[in-house]
Design brief:
The chain is mainly alpha-helical and 176 residues long. Helix 4 packs across helix 5. The longest helix is centred in the N-terminal third of the chain and has 29 residues. The radius of gyration is 17 Å and the shape is globular. The N and C termini lie close together (12 Å). About 5% of the residues have low confidence.
Length: 176
């Protein structure tokens, strides 16, 4: 299992990079330009905790802001928020990769298809479920269908690249 975790940690770098490429190359082609004003007050919060993110703030930026405020007692500036958001994004991607590696290691089931299924599950459980329920983003009705499809596409890209990375590394690295 340790080998799988290491393979997943390493393969996750490929996954996070692929997700970034999805957002820059593919997502703009599928985006709905009539999505509305990101700075408008959010009206579709489904969280029992209430809205935890600021208007226009991503869930990763909100988590980064919470951590920064817990440690420093201060509100981060714009550049710090961007860096914190990126750190949360990479941290979650790497830890998720380690989980994928651990799950697939025993039966050597890592490949792009199992990775894509893992990415789709992450999208469904976290992006569409836990994140809105924690108030870190608005509920499903706040986003057009293209927004949901883009987030699914990004997670499929992450998972397929993660699965490919773990599969390839598993073939070239020694088993003992």
């Amino acid at each position: 299992m340790y080998r799988g975790v290491v393979l997943g940690l390493t393969g996750s770098v490929l996954g996070v990079l692929a997700m970034g490429q999805y957002w820059t190359k593919v997502a703009p082609l599928l985006s709905d330009s009539s999505q509305g004003d990101d700075d408008a007050p959010d009206q579709n919060v489904i969280s029992p905790l209430g809205q935890q993110h600021e208007p226009g703030e991503s869930s990763t930026a909100a988590l980064g802001r919470f951590a920064y405020q817990a440690v420093t007692g201060k509100t981060p500036g714009k550049e710090t928020r961007a860096a914190l958001s990126e750190a949360v994004h990479w941290g979650f991607g790497v830890l998720s990769g380690a989980a994928f590696g651990a799950i697939t290691a025993r039966q050597q089931k890592a490949n792009p298809l199992t990775g894509a299924a893992f990415g789709a599950a992450m999208w469904a459980v976290f992006d569409e479920g836990m994140v809105p329920l924690l108030g870190l983003q608005d509920g499903p009705a706040a986003s057009p269908v293209s927004g949901h499809l883009n987030r699914l596409g990004a997670h499929l890209s992450y998972g397929a690249a993660l699965g490919l990375g773990v599969w390839a590394l598993g073939r070239v690295l020694p088993k003992d």
